[in-house]
Design goal:
Elements lengths: L7 H10 L9 H13 L9 E5 L7 H7 L4 E6 L2 H9 L3 H6 L7 E4 L12 E7 L8 H11 E12 L5 H7 L12 H10 L2 E15 L2 H10 L16 H12 L7 E14 L20
């Protein structure tokens, strides 16, 4: 069994704690979601079912439903409070009338162990989830399993340069951010999980703040505090906090403190298998038809 790096209970606790006000602090998640949606403009797909993996309050539902009005949507998240907050945030008339296929279902589940049938969905959508997992591979393998042949996985996550200023300011060996996978490693993982034609790209989004405490406050409000097992557990003294503030203050540019987020985007398709589960090659005679 591989070592666990992420405190999954802490992840669930942090997001559950902010579920009621998450929509006031998730602007980065929404911005990345919009940029992912734009990437769908170049994809030909008519999904019957869509799985939103790590859906939180369901901020992606409306745009996905508008783009694919005939598709059923299922949102999965580790936090029951997030799912509940997403339900209650809808207007009462929508909750009363949203009984049909257009009303997304919500389910508490682990991304690495999906309670879904194989080949049951055509699009797996995941916005800023993978860096909260010990290892992306089990979740990517599960996404491949539940996709039908010809189905698409589209995801975003954070790369290694994310919150580099915060790590620099602390300047110690403790974990102060999540562990972020490199874009090229994620591409290799996709291939290893059986996906074909993976496409990876990256961009840097820099948020700016007036002061250090405002930056930390927004990270906490978005549930984005460090949840690594080797994070510092005890309270830091006033002197130590002042040292960190001073180190971060040295990074001020044009009157603002920067916070860098390296956003990694990826998508890949599930191709027809080339061999049976016991290793025998599959020969497709339709390739030879004229």
């Amino acid at each position: 069994m591989s070592a666990a790096f992420v405190d999954h209970r802490q992840v669930a606790r942090r997001f559950s704690r902010v579920a009621g006000t998450y929509d006031q602090a998730d602007f980065l998640v929404r911005e990345v979601d919009q940029r992912m949606q734009e990437r769908l403009d170049y994809v030909r797909l008519a999904p019957g079912y869509i799985l939103d993996l790590g859906c939180s309050r369901g901020a992606s539902f409306a745009a996905l439903q508008e783009r694919y009005p005939e598709a059923g949507i299922l949102g999965l998240d580790i936090s029951p409070a997030m799912l509940s907050a997403g339900r209650s945030a809808r207007p009462a008339w929508q909750r009363l009338l949203g009984m049909g296929r257009s009303d997304p279902l919500r389910l508490v589940a682990d991304a690495s162990n999906l309670p879904l049938k194989s080949a049951s969905t055509a699009l797996v959508w995941s916005n800023l989830l993978l860096h909260w997992l010990d290892n992306p591979i089990p979740a990517l393998a599960e996404a491949h399993r539940v996709l039908e042949v010809g189905g698409l996985l589209m995801f975003s996550t954070l790369g290694p340069d994310s919150l580099r200023e915060l790590r620099q300011a602390f300047g110690d060996s403790d974990a102060h951010t999540q562990r972020f996978a490199d874009m090229h490693d994620l591409g290799d993982m996709l291939v290893g999980c059986g996906f074909s034609d993976p496409v990876m790209d990256m961009e840097v989004i820099t948020l700016t703040y007036d002061d250090f405490d405002a930056m930390l406050g927004e990270l906490r409000a978005a549930g984005s505090s460090c949840a690594m097992r080797d994070r510092r557990r005890g309270l830091m003294g006033r002197q130590r906090w002042q040292q960190v503030r001073d180190a971060y203050e040295a990074l001020r540019r044009d009157g603002k403190l920067p916070a860098t987020f390296e956003v990694v985007y990826g998508h890949a398709w599930k191709a027809a298998p080339k061999q049976t589960p016991d290793g025998r090659a599959i020969i497709r005679f339709d390739k030879f038809k004229k």
